[in-house]
Amino acid sequence: MKVGCIGLGDIAQKAYLPVLGARPGVELHVQTRTPATLARVADGLRLPAGQRHADLDELIAQGLDAAFVHAPTDVHPEIVTRLLEAGVPTYVDKPLAYELAESERLVGLAEDRGVSLAVGFNRRFAPGYTQCADHPRELILMQKNRIGLPEEPRAMILDDFIHVVDTLRFLVPGPIDDVTVRARTKDGLLHHVVLQLAGDGFTALGVMNRLSGSAEEILEVSGQDTKRQVINLAEVIDHKGQPTVRRRGDWVPVARQRGIEQAVLTFLDAVRAGKVLSARDALATHELCERVVHAVEERTGAA
């Protein structure tokens, strides 16, 4: 199975290439326009010259069975379009694009061509989070905070807060009837944002503070006198009277803890089975992010 990886930055090197490079039956091809990075990464993976590519057309010409896109977000539309038009099942790191119209176009193109398109929402596969889907979820709270990183609203929401938005959508136990956004911006930069989703019998809150005292990710789901916390995707604390703590095993790979390995294998298994994956649900997350962007921009304009 020939699998291409386009873009060899930090996320590809730390999370995806260790999974793809160790998978039996996968002939891995890598592509980047940066010669030094291409040589260093390919050397580390011990890839022969025929599996190293500086040009996307050259990579596509290898007859790929699947591709993973980890290039910068602003070039996602161009790269994903070329892959889909070539009939290559494509997994793209979130988001599909910064502009909703481009994301809609890509999902439509994949459906028109009958080609799989998947978006890398790995938290849907992270063990600590998937287990929360079996827990009472009358109240859901997710925080994903950073230190000293205020940013332009659209980039922050689409590149980072989108994980919070998608995780809330994944965990809410019913249709969303109400969406509320609160935010603080200063000098055109987004400092923090709060998203509230509500429906029949549940409320979900997503929080991101880019001027927090620590870099952290905390998920809490509660209801029926029980609560489950997941801290940094690794530590699970169940509260029902006396707290019970479960920590990630010493030998559990980070890619498995964060759901990346499972997302990769699910995608590859679907490709092998000839199953076409749709990104239509992922598009709904992009649509909700666009609502958050507009709400923040309206508040910024009012200020």
From TrEMBL:
* Limits of the YceM-like C-terminal domain: 140-235
Query: SUPFAM superfamilies, alphabetically?
Result: Glyceraldehyde-3-phosphate dehydrogenase-like, C-terminal domain, NAD(P)-binding Rossmann-fold domains
Q: Which residues form the Gfo/Idh/MocA-like oxidoreductase N-terminal domain?
A: 1-121
Q: Which species is this UniProt entry from?
A: Streptomyces sp. SID12501
Q: Which Pfam families match?
A: GFO_IDH_MocA, YceM-like_C
Q: Which InterPro entries match?
A: Gfo/Idh/MocA-like_OxRdtase_N, Gfo/Idh/MocA_oxidoreduct, NAD(P)-bd_dom_sf, YceM-like_C
Indicate what this protein is called per its UniProt record. Gfo/Idh/MocA family oxidoreductase
Could you tell me one molecular function GO term of this UniProt entry?
nucleotide binding
